[in-house]
Specification:
Elements lengths: L22 H14 L6 E5 L7 H4 L3 E4 L5 H11 L4 E7 H7 L1 H10 L4 E6 L29 H4 L5 H6 L6 E6 L3 H19 L5 E6 L3 H4 L3 H15 L3 E5 H4 L2
Parallel strand pairs: 1-2, 1-3, 3-4, 4-6, 5-6
Antiparallel strand pairs: 5-7
């Protein structure tokens, strides 16, 4: 049995993520893949506002911290001026699908050659548990205390489905981090997205379904089951677009 070793990209520091939060797992998966690809000294993590910004405390690598929702715009500038670098944005759902919606859709439509890692936990995790664009119907938040209602607040936005309709993106996929299989699939998907970027193929997008024990007001174990019964049936995991595989 292989022994797991901490990636050198993860700082030797105690995590500040809430107990059971899958952001920590997402960070580990991304760091493992970057190290496996030999890109530890060549990667740049573009982070915006939200729980994802905590990565600056736990990541041994280069960062660019930007305004709320603006990670795709900043990543565009960095990648165009440093085309040899592995550039990726790490964003949450409130950041990406709300205030940053125009930024992500425009970058994807242009086919910018960087990667977006999208952590979707259906809530504004850091700023108070408000409803996010991805909050499920009936899901209670601090701004939908009786549950999200489609008539007044619309339906949860499916970002993989939206982005995959655009012509330019080369890889669009969604994975759930609440099971061993989902974790293995996510790791492989992140690796493929980074490999496509390094080969100059174009825009790649990986959505990771995560949880939020604090704002969902559930135990970490209960959140994993909630994902099975509520999150995953609506946000179906899978590869939504893979131009390279289609051309084989």
């Amino acid at each position: 049995m292989a022994e797991y070793m901490r990636s050198h990209m993860i700082a030797d520091a105690q995590s500040g993520y809430c107990p059971g939060c899958l952001h920590a797992l997402a960070t580990r998966l991304v760091s493992d893949v970057i190290e496996e690809l030999g890109q530890a000294d060549n990667s740049l993590n573009v982070i915006s506002v939200g729980c994802s910004a905590l990565n600056i405390l736990y990541w041994n690598g280069d960062f660019l911290s930007v305004a709320h929702g603006r990670a795709p715009a900043a990543a565009t500038g960095v990648k165009r001026t440093n085309p040899e670098r592995l550039v990726f944005a790490y964003q949450g759902d409130g950041d990406l699908a709300a205030i940053g919606l125009a930024e992500i859709m425009s970058a994807a439509n242009r086919g910018e050659n960087f990667t977006v890692i999208f952590a979707n936990n259906q809530t504004y995790g850091m700023t108070g548990g408000q409803m996010a664009p991805t909050t499920l119907l009936g899901q209670k938040t601090t701004t939908t205390v009786y549950g999200r209602d489609a008539e007044t607040t619309g339906y949860p936005m499916k970002m993989c489905e939206l982005i995959s309709t655009l012509e330019a993106p080369v890889f669009v996929a969604r994975y759930a981090l609440n099971s061993p299989k989902g974790i293995r699939d996510a790791r492989a998907g992140i690796k493929k997205a980074f490999e496509y970027q390094l080969a100059g193929k174009g825009f790649t997008f990986v959505e990771l379904l995560t949880n939020c024990p604090t704002n969902w007001k559930l135990s970490p174990l209960q959140t994993l089951e909630y994902m099975n019964t509520n999150t995953i049936p609506y946000f179906k995991p899978g590869v939504y677009k893979d131009k390279e595989a289609e051309n084989v």
